């Protein structure tokens, strides 16, 4: 697990945790946080040298060898898409629909659109909350079953249970988070957490 630590990251996380933060402000803080997370998450992307002509001379620059595929887990992962897209030229977005059954806490997959012709690209799995880890493990199982090999998981708040579960089942996948919280409650919610990330973004409280 890679803990992304930066004063601004902590400021945005604090605003997201605050129950007084409005739906609109929540969205803005989440987007700003996603932009900050993109830097460490994408730090080792492969590039290729290209020539570029400035108004003054020719020089050498780079372009991405393979553009990352962003995979937001619906609904909550949608809030991380804009911040990542802002900084990745040519990013493709491939949605994965999944919700956690309230009784069993097991993930239920209801939509996918894997980009078959890009299976050798880096995949950035976006889901702000890593709680029991059930959803993340199912999403990773799915991406690998379709042929993805280079996958990074981006959360913003993680519980120790979820981090351990992903590490045990998918040790090759780096897990980035902005906060490692204390525990889960009896309903599988992260404590202190921020509540339900989907509801807080879309106002469905
Ligand atoms: O680690 P887990 O225990 O699987 O829990 C995490 C999942 O729960 C939330 O989704 P939710 O079911 O609330 O769906 P939503 O985004 O549509 O609200 C969250 O966005 C994760 O996908
Ligand atoms: O605390 C939690 C746990 C799962 N999903 C959320 O949105 N929040
Ligand atoms: Mg939810």
TrEMBL record:
<dbReference type="InterPro" id="IPR005765">
    <property type="entry name" value="UPRT"/>
</dbReference>
<keyword id="KW-0547">Nucleotide-binding</keyword>
<protein>
    <recommendedName>
        <fullName>Uracil phosphoribosyltransferase</fullName>
        <ecNumber>2.4.2.9</ecNumber>
    </recommendedName>
</protein>
<dbReference type="GO" id="GO:0005525">
    <property type="term" value="F:GTP binding"/>
</dbReference>
<keyword id="KW-0460">Magnesium</keyword>
<feature type="domain" description="Phosphoribosyltransferase">
    <location>
        <begin position="4"/>
        <end position="204"/>
    </location>
</feature>
<dbReference type="GO" id="GO:0005737">
    <property type="term" value="C:cytoplasm"/>
</dbReference>
<dbReference type="Pfam" id="PF14681">
    <property type="entry name" value="UPRTase"/>
</dbReference>
<keyword id="KW-0808">Transferase</keyword>
<dbReference type="InterPro" id="IPR000836">
    <property type="entry name" value="PRTase_dom"/>
</dbReference>
<keyword id="KW-0342">GTP-binding</keyword>
<dbReference type="GO" id="GO:0044206">
    <property type="term" value="P:UMP salvage"/>
</dbReference>
<comment type="function">
    <text>Catalyzes the conversion of uracil and 5-phospho-alpha-D-ribose 1-diphosphate (PRPP) to UMP and diphosphate.</text>
</comment>
<dbReference type="InterPro" id="IPR029057">
    <property type="entry name" value="PRTase-like"/>
</dbReference>
<keyword id="KW-0328">Glycosyltransferase</keyword>
<dbReference type="GO" id="GO:0006223">
    <property type="term" value="P:uracil salvage"/>
</dbReference>
<keyword id="KW-0021">Allosteric enzyme</keyword>
<comment type="similarity">
    <text>Belongs to the UPRTase family.</text>
</comment>
<dbReference type="GO" id="GO:0004845">
    <property type="term" value="F:uracil phosphoribosyltransferase activity"/>
</dbReference>
<dbReference type="InterPro" id="IPR050054">
    <property type="entry name" value="UPRTase/APRTase"/>
</dbReference>
<comment type="pathway">
    <text>Pyrimidine metabolism; UMP biosynthesis via salvage pathway; UMP from uracil: step 1/1.</text>
</comment>
């Amino acid at each position: 697990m890679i803990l992304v630590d930066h004063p601004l990251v902590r400021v945005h996380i604090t605003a997201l945790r605050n129950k007084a933060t409005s739906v609109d402000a929540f969205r803005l803080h989440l987007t700003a946080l996603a932009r900050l997370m993109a830097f460490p998450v994408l730090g080792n992307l492969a590039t290729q040298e290209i020539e570029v002509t400035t108004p003054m001379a020719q020089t050498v620059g780079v372009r991405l060898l393979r553009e990352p595929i962003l995979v937001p887990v619906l609904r909550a992962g949608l809030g991380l898409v804009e911040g990542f897209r802002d900084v990745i030229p040519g990013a493709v977005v491939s949605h994965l629909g999944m919700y956690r059954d309230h009784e069993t806490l097991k993930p239920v997959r209801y939509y996918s659109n894997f980009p078959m012709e890009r299976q050798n690209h880096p995949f950035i799995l976006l889901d702000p909350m890593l709680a029991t880890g059930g959803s993340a493990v199912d999403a990773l199982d799915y991406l690998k079953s379709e042929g993805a090999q280079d996958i990074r998981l981006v959360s913003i708040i993680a519980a120790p249970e979820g981090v351990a579960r992903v590490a045990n089942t998918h040790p090759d996948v780096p897990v980035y988070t902005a906060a490692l919280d204390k525990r889960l409650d009896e309903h599988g919610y992260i404590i202190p957490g921020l509540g339900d990330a989907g509801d807080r973004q879309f106002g469905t409280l």
